[in-house]
Write a structure and sequence with these properties.
By secondary structure, this protein is of the alpha+beta class. Helices cover about 25% and strands about 35% of the residues. The chain has helices at about 10-30, 100-135, 140-175, 220-225; strands spanning about 40-45, 50, 55-65, 65-70, 75-80, 90, 95-100, 175-180, 185-190, 195, 200-210, 210-220, 230-235, 240-250, 260-270, 280-285, 290-295, 300-305, 305-310, 320-325, 325-330, 335-340, 345-350, 365. The strands form 5 sheets. Strands 1, 18, 19, 20, 23 and 24 form a 6-stranded mixed sheet that branches. A 6-stranded antiparallel beta barrel has the order 3-12-15-14-13-16. A 4-stranded antiparallel sheet has the order 2-17-22-21, with no helix packed on it. A hairpin with a 2-residue loop joins strand 18 (about 300-305) and strand 19. The radius of gyration is 47 Å and the shape is elongated. The relative contact order is 0.19.
């Protein structure tokens, strides 16, 4: 009888040899994963034109449609001031007075000149009347008659000139009292009793009673969006229930170099009493609608320090970065000015994982 002894380690050794052979065979075959392109999961959107009717909301203040600076027409020392800022004045009301001492002296001098001219006129007129009677009777010469007539006319001219000077002096005396030309509210004061004022120097500013404006300082880009197609709604900030409506009445032709804004005045149809001068208001206007391309904020990237988006080529599945111009920024979205065309596919999410020329599998492209 023959006995066969089998080593207990033989199965393990065979297993090790078999695994080694498999690794050797695997190393001899070319790599199948080296050229595998791993697609990046992204979300895309197909660009399309949509209606865009933006609302413009700004903060401004209530101002008068008409206001004027009033000033003395003569120079002098302020004798009294009768009104202050915030006072309501009526037409013809005296606002302030200048010491009239100099103007009184001018009136007295002009009156004296007129009295002298009148006396001279009476004397010359009597002489002319005598020459007229004598000339009619043939007791005087034509030369003497003409001289008397010329003297009378000269004296009358002197009287007229003196009367005009007296009227001017009296007018200057009246100008020592500064009166309101219209009814309104005093919004500024530049005089005080004892102060010396020069002629035409602004003493008060009066906001005339009547229609009011809601005044806003806005950026030029907002005006470029189109014209206002409806009345502007103006709401009092301190009381949102107080509402008025108006239309654009005036747009400043120049840009304020300090703030970079343009002043726009909205003429209010009927301003409520609560909308007093200087009151802060909020204005909302609807701009003329137009067709635009909208993009979500997440689509925005950068190329050469300019706005850009990733464009997907539907044929190759490759992406590329392209610059475009932005019309304006809005909450959660961007309004495109130019550089993109309806029908193009733009990556909206996952753009931070992309590189130029990278492909995206159609099965892994998300929706908008």
């Amino acid at each position: 009888m023959r006995y066969h002894f089998v080593s207990p380690q033989r199965p393990l050794a065979q297993a090790v040899i078999a695994c080694a052979a498999l690794f050797v065979l695997a190393g001899c075959q070319p790599s199948q994963t080296a050229n595998v392109k791993v697609a990046t999961p992204v979300r895309t959107v197909v660009l399309a034109l949509t209606d865009y009717e933006p609302d413009v909301s700004l903060t401004g203040e209530i101002k008068p449609q008409f206001q004027s600076d009033v000033s003395f027409r003569v120079s002098g020392r302020i004798l009294e001031r009768n009104v202050d800022v915030g006072d309501h004045v009526s037409a013809g009301q005296t606002l302030a007075k200048i010491d009239p001492q100099e103007q009184n002296a001018d009136v007295a001098a002009a009156q004296a000149v007129l009295d002298s001219a009148n006396a001279q006129l009476r004397q010359v007129t009597a002489t002319f009347e005598r020459q007229k009677e004598l000339f009619a009777k043939g007791f005087t010469t034509r030369r003497e008659y003409d001289q008397a007539e010329a003297g009378a006319r000269t004296a009358q001219g002197s009287v007229d000139s003196a009367a005009a000077q007296l009227a001017a002096a009296q007018e200057r005396l009246g100008d020592t009292e500064l009166k309101a030309g219209v009814a309104g509210i005093v919004t500024a004061r530049n005089v005080e009793a004892g102060q010396v004022m020069q002629a035409a120097q602004a003493a008060f500013t009066i906001a005339q009673d009547g229609p009011r404006d809601a005044v806003f300082d806005i950026y030029e880009s907002i005006l470029g969006g189109g014209r206002v197609v409806s009345k502007v709604e103006v709401t009092l900030l301190s009381d949102p229930k107080t509402v008025a409506f108006g239309e654009v009445r005036e747009i400043a032709p120049t840009v304020d170099m300090t703030t970079g804004t343009i002043r726009v005045k909205i003429g209010l149809d009927n301003s409520p009493p609560a909308m007093t001068l200087g009151a802060l208001v909020r204005g909302v206007a609807h701009i003329q609608p137009r067709k635009v391309i909208r993009l979500p904020w997440s689509a925005l990237s950068s190329l050469d320090d300019k706005p850009a988006v990733w464009i997907l080529d539907p044929k190759t599945g490759a992406v590329s970065l392209r610059n475009f111009k932005i019309d304006r920024y809005r909450t959660g979205e961007i309004i495109v000015a130019e550089g993109l065309t309806p029908g193009e596919i733009v990556v909206t999410d996952g753009s931070q994982l992309l590189r130029p020329g990278q492909t995206i599998s159609p099965s892994e492209r998300g929706g908008a």
